[in-house]
Design the sequence.
């Protein structure tokens, strides 16, 4: 088993237990100390700017991403195949900084966003590594749509998760999707179809990238 690298939160499925009133709109709010905060719930009394609006168009993009995540997002690969190598330098930087295999970060990014830096899920996860607002803040990411911050934040989160699970690649991937609490509760991959499928897809891409080095 690959030896990699606890953190605090879930990422892709973070709103499975949240209120049904949660929205996909993303607000950038400025705190009293001047720091920026991203959230899907507008906070009263704070200066907030709507940066991503929930719409039928954004939902359809997310649906296409979900449908085609095992291979390529519908249509995007044909329009912009160069994106699969566009972030090589940043992925390498993150891999060296957090002592993670570069193919591993690449595989997570492929499944999370298909290398689309502006994608936002209905749960509110943002960018290449699909960081939830609270996760982004805890990883030191002030702008989740800044590709360098997003990649480094996602890699840091993976590193912390892998520390928690003693380098177990499978549990690290499962926790990135379902949260470390769920992995610990079930002492393994949670019995969620989405998480089980997610783990298979990430591992498939990881071993392909590791063996061929191709994007």
Sequence:
């Amino acid at each position: 088993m690959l030896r990699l690298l606890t953190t605090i939160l879930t990422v892709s499925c973070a709103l499975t237990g949240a209120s049904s009133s949660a929205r996909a709109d993303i607000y950038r709010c400025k705190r009293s100390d001047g720091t920026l905060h991203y959230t899907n719930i507008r906070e009263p009394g704070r200066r907030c700017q709507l940066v991503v609006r929930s719409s039928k168009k954004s939902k359809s993009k997310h649906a296409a991403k979900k449908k085609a995540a095992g291979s390529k997002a519908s249509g995007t690969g044909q329009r912009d195949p160069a994106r699969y190598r566009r972030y090589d330098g940043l992925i390498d930087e993150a891999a060296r900084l957090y002592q993670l295999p570069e193919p591993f970060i690449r595989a997570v990014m492929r499944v999370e966003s298909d290398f689309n830096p502006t994608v936002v899920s209905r749960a509110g996860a943002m960018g290449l590594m699909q960081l939830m607002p609270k996760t982004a803040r805890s990883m030191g990411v002030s702008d989740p749509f800044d590709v360098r911050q997003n990649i480094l934040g996602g890699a840091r989160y993976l590193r912390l998760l892998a520390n928690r699970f003693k380098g177990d690649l499978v549990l690290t991937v499962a926790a990135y999707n379902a949260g470390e609490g769920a992995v610990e509760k079930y002492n393994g991959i949670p019995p969620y179809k989405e998480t089980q499928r997610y783990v298979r897809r990430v591992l498939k891409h990881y071993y392909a990238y590791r063996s061929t080095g191709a994007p």
Summary: The domain at 56-212 is CATH 1.10.530.10 (Lysozyme). The first helix runs from residue 56 to 68. The beta strands are 26-30, 36-39, 47-52.
